[in-house]
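agent: user wants the full assembly modeled, not chains individually. Plan: 1) parse entity lines 2) check alphabet per entity 3) run joint structure prediction 4) return tokens. Steps 1-2 passed, three entities, 873 residues total. Proceeding.
--- entities ---
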Amino acid sequence: MADALTRSMRASHVLVAVLVAASLIFAGIGVVKGDTFYLRLGTEALIFAGLALSVDILLGYTGLLSLGQALYFGLGAYVSALVLMVTPSFWAAMGATLVAAMIVGAVGGVVANRVRGVYFALITFGMAQVAAKVVYNTRALGASDGLIGVPIIKVNFGFAAISSASPAGFFLFTLAFIVILYALAAYLLDTPFGRLLIALKANERRVPFLGYDTVTPRLLVYVIAAVIAALSGALYPMLRGFVSPELLFFSTSGNAVITVVTGGVGTLVGALYGGILLTLLKSVIGSYTEHHLIVIGLLFMGAVIFLPRGLMGIVRPAIERLLARRTKS
Amino acid sequence: MTAPVLEVRGLSVSFGGLRAVDNVSFAVARNRVTTVIGPNGAGKSTLFNLISGAVRPAAGEVLIDGTDQTGHTPNHLQAAGLARSFQITNLFFELSVAENLRLAAQILEPMRMALRPVSASRAAQQRVDELLERFELADKGAMPVAKLSHGEQRRLEVAVALAGKPKILLLDEPTQGMSHGDTADTARLIRSLASDVTVLLIEHDIGLVMSLSDTVIVMHQGRKLAEGTPDAVRGNPDVQSAYFGHA
Amino acid sequence: MSTAIEYFQFVLAPQMLIGLVLGVAVILVALGLTIIFGLLDVINMSHGEFYALGAFIALALGSIGLPFWLLVILVPLVMLPVGYIVERGLIQRVFHSGERHVTTLLLTFGLGLVMEDAFRLVFGPNPHKPETPISGAIDVFGVFLPLYRLFLIVGGAVIVALVALVLYRTRLGAMVRAAAFDRHMAASLGVPVQHVYAGAFAFGVALAGLAGVLLAPIYSVFPTMGRDFILMAFTVVIVGGMGSIAGVVVAGLLLTQVQAVSSLYISPVWSDPIVFGIMVIMLMVRPQGLFGRLGHG
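--- prediction returned ---
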């Protein structure tokens, strides 16, 4: 007898598999058509989906709304860019990003976790605003222009290498990377640690009486979310060859939140689908008008009011029912 | 002579000028059922809050197995062997019955299991199955707690407190709001618990108190008024006037 | 000795004056925010956009020839029904869900996005600067005081005093405070809680809009003006205490003075981090802020 949480995560896995399949087809078509633009756009969508994933980990599983995840995303992007400009090594960039994210995340986590609810949202908002302002005004980091000239790199796996210049290759690599991040997050949720986070969201008061510390798990999950956001951000300069302070702006954090809420809070896969949907919408609407934010903003408000469980709230139960029927027969 | 499982000495706390608990001292005998009774506002729940680490005492000590645990956090106290249930059901309502129990039982597993899949924690799973059986909730394992009847929720409250294999169990009005039949069943359950755990209980149902308890402690206006066997306490004139003498 | 006085006259006092003007604006905006939080328990992430809305409406009406004085009265009046509809039509829809704090925050965040882009759509991304309604300045003890700024400071103080008066000395105010303290009890006493809530929200955004009108000649009007302002407004509300009017006034004056004076010595880049730092420290040390909540204050 599988637990309800496990069942819904299984539905999420099915949806991820569907996403991977669709992406493979997409990549295939792209290669055949010799496309660069859409493959790169798709890669970018996946990178921002990684940021959305980090927002969902906090919002969906611990109930904490972070309005400043872009801070870590931008951190990852800048650290990665800086490292790559010195040595074009994927692993060095990722390693440096990991360390930076753990340190900054720990500091941010200690500060932010002193408070809950709206105060947490405001503190994270403030942290990101401050960081964005500082980066915007720091000449060493390129100020308002950002850093350009990030070289093309080869991701070396020993047996094979993928170049960041190859649209399809890097798209598939990013897909794999983000799916691995998803898998890590999903795995975590099926562990006692993950379940403790869910319990903290469900009834924080009771948790200490069961014998658990409440401070450490919160801090840990915050750092994990920071790391996921940063690692996703680290891919950005590899794709685009530059980084700019916009990556730290509130709009980046805000977009991630919109993605998660429309996709479905707490589903993890909602962050992925939401990210893709948002990118699609932006480019479709963007081809008609510059003011896509009005449409997206309205759709978002509609989702908050009418679809509190997001798109996944409709899709996942349907899949759960399908799975249940299959196991019965 | 070993130290009593739980001992409180001179425990006091005030809330805004009101002495909620005033210099209360007693020791709880091992594997016995001790019940705390008293009129409303006597300070019983506050006493539990002081013992379980929810509230810091202004004065006094709490000792578990002779070790000073005064002012320690609830999770620290759980590690020392103390568990409690709540008067107002304080469970994880959105989660399933089994998950509630598993969360509580998981504490029995070593830390390294925290990052392995939940299904790998067999000891915890076993404990969950045991408790589901013992508390007659076996067919409701997957049900969200919010869908249980009030009586079932109150039973689960006790089960969750018991899941971590505590030495001493504090039950705050476990039969609150229960039907007569449920109350009798719960009383039997509590009696059967005493063989593994020491039980300290707050109760209002006098009949229950008399039949269940080995020792009764009476509180009134924050102070301990009397302590003794049920019969001794029943005959105590101070207790009688506390309950009936004041209009 | 005279250099100290001169320093005060020519460097410090003008800066403090700038701080005071900003302070009045921040107080008016934060006042609305704190009333909305104190009463409705709603974090209005679009509050900055209502500040901007006031400025934009003034810009539009001003361009058809309406005088500034009329705008000061008209714009807040126009914003009242807007706020009322937003509260009844949008916020009430998610008000009764379990996670009200998060959903109203998200909803108002979305609203803010839409509003900001709408401003860009209608008015374009570039700043507009309306003419200063009162030109000229006076000299007070050697300190150069532009008249419009003086008007703002005095006018702002009067408005805040009026709000406090209404809230604490009138029956309407008593109803509002009762509804903030205990919604159900107030309802059973005959207070029309639904209308009080919607009215309070409307009033709060009208205050923000008024601030927008008043400050437009000084800070210009552009689509992202709300976003830039909101961190300071939230900091004032948090430091002062969510729901506290006295808190907003004290914190508003304090923080803007800190920012104004510190900008004399430190690069303005650091003013946001300083303000934010104060917010963080307050949240960590005394999360309820300096003073209490609206109903309990």
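agent: reporting back. The radius of gyration of chain A is 19 Å. Chain A has one domain: 4-248.
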